[in-house]
Amino acid sequence: MSFAALTQRAQVARLRPSALEALRAYPFTVRRLRLLNHGFNTTFRVDTEEGPSYALRINVNSRRSPQQIGAEMAWLAALAEDTDLCVPVPQPTRDGHLMRELWSPALDRALPVAVFSWLPGPNLGAQATPDQMREVGRAAATLHAHARRWTLPAGTSLSSLRAPLMDSPNRLEREHELLTPERREVVSAALARVEAALGRVYAQDTPRVLHADLHNWNLKWSRGRLSVFDFDDSGVGVPMQDLAISAYYLRPKEELEAELLEGYASATRLPTFAQADYEAVVAGRALVLLNDLLENTTAELRALLPRYVPNSVTKLRHYLETGVFRHDVQGLIPA
């Protein structure tokens, strides 16, 4: 049976031995390994006999190359040293490597593995407050300011985020039972609008390294301090994209989106963009997520497809008709 056909529990059970094997390369003794998330990637909390806890990430669905992961690790290390942001610090193996690969019999291929310092506190999630979103805006401004003066180390690289689907191959134009001709027409129209908007936005700003997945489930809050994690989607783009990606997950909470932008503006000048282009890039996030989900191997996410695909198309159709992207539109299939 293929990995994609296994249940969520069976998939995690297949990955757990590989995770324990990978941890043998690190200078600590594992006391307990607990699953945190099995989605696009798989993350475990690692409690050690020596005391500290860590986060182990296995790139199950990611297409990242060693050069791209190397760039991610280098940026995280530089952010930890150069700024006051709280970010996960990459941990070296005994031989000094910040990333290694493990062979997964379940997937019949090598998977990149990395270990990071532990970040305390719960995710902001759906309970984020206006004050917290202001901090998120300030954190985004700090990331962008640092990226403006930071350069990729030799031997590393990051993909351009200029295309509507960022650095992912286009799966939205392939045959799929859930993408009927009518739905595909909506998707194609949305892709064209996002492509045109990105062309205008990139002509107005200078690309730099972005987080590119800055939403409330990649942010933690502990004792009044924000932490930013999951830099696995980082790439080279323009700052407005980070803000639009954050906004996608906040809709329709307009007060939180306003606080995000106010927080950014309190630290540095907001990027220049037309509102219509901003809305297009927000809508573009729906295309990126739909495109990724169509070939995701995680059982729990694949089970969402029969509802997720038509709902995504309904939201995109509303965007094309109104010029505004929202999640609270009529005609959605309820969970």
Automatic annotation (TrEMBL):
One of its GO terms (biological process) is threonine biosynthetic process. One of its GO terms (molecular function) is homoserine kinase activity. It holds the Pfam family APH. SUPFAM superfamilies: Protein kinase-like (PK-like) (SSF56112). InterPro entries: Aminoglycoside_PTrfase, Kinase-like_dom_sf, Pseudomonas-type_ThrB. Gene3D superfamilies: 3.90.1200.10, Phosphorylase Kinase, domain 1. Keywords: Kinase, Transferase. Residues 34-265 form the Aminoglycoside phosphotransferase domain. Belongs to the pseudomonas-type ThrB family. This is Aminoglycoside phosphotransferase.
